[in-house]
Amino acid sequence: MIIIEENNINKVWKNALEKLYKNGYIPQDSRFFKMDTLIIEMNEPELCEPDSQFPMDKANIDIINNFIITGENEKKVCHEWTKLYFHRLFDNPNSQIEYMIERIKKDRVGIACNWIKDDQKAEIKPCMLSITASNENGKVNFQLHSRACNIYDKLLMNLQEFITVQKYIASRCSLKIGRFTMFIDYAQISVKDKKKVEDIISK
Fold first, then answer.
1. H-helix or E-strand spanning residue 149
2. DSSP code, position 194
3. Calpha distance 134→109 (Å, rounded)
4. What are the residue ranges spanned by the domains of the chain?
5. What predicted TM-score, i.e. pTM, was given to this entire model?
6. Which residues contact 109 (CB under 8 A, 6 or more apart)?
7. Is the CATH number 3.30.572.10 carried by domain 2-195?
8. Rg from Cα positions in the chain
9. What's the DSSP call for residue 125?
10. I want to staple 42 with a disulfide (CB 3.0 to 4.6 A). Which of 57, 115, 134, 180 is the partner?
């Protein structure tokens, strides 16, 4: 298991790459170079300009960050999983996000689930499984559980979009931003990305 405690999301990404590269285990699935369970703890999460070495440009990340809370410009969203996340979290008449907000406003815990049985055999399987958010001393603490994440080309984008969701929930509840925790069952470095990861962590 790898644990990262850091508030800067670019440093989280680079630390995750380095620690997984050096300390992860070699899985039997030949598509992956390294794999391990990863926990990320951010006490003061903040969005910032994405690292220039991350393989998705800022324009696409900005579109994703806006879409994940508004549903706008879906055709421009380059990440199919994000589209799935938005619809399962926000779609009415049974919006999970709205229910979470109602619960948090009552000083309770709000939970949203993103996995259904048929996902096991679907072409696009959601990586994000659930969100748990709570009002802790006037702040929204946010816990994200993912079954898998390709650390090289997905983690920094995932942090951006889900911190955006945390900020949205906090704003709707008139609360401050609290701790952001992300649990990843299978953090991965693909074989095809091994050389790119080596270039990043060597600098």
1. strand 139-150
2. H
3. 4
4. 2-195
5. 0.95
6. 103, 132, 133, 134
7. yes
8. 17
9. -
10. 180
